[in-house]
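Reopening: Protein Wnt still failing for me.
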Amino acid sequence: EGLSRRHRYNFQLKPYNPEHKPPGIKDLVYLEPSPPFCEKNPKLGILGTHGRQCNDTSIGVDGCDLMCCGRGYKTQEVIVVERCG
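Support: Ran it again with your exact input. Result attached.
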């Protein structure tokens, strides 16, 4: 006991794509491949990612590179004006 996960199992988890962030200590990591999440699959309860909003500057799971699955995406700049309380 007292050994870190890295030393206990003698391996380091790395992202499949080196441009994406490595898993954090609170991230759930699967050792088997997940079913494809890009396309809708009602049988598996997968809603797909078409039409979802993504974050163009994020390298996480909310980033456009991952979420748009290579389909491309449109960017939109929105200016929000609010009154002071």
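The two ends are 54 Å apart (CA to CA). If you still see a failure, please send the error message rather than a screenshot.
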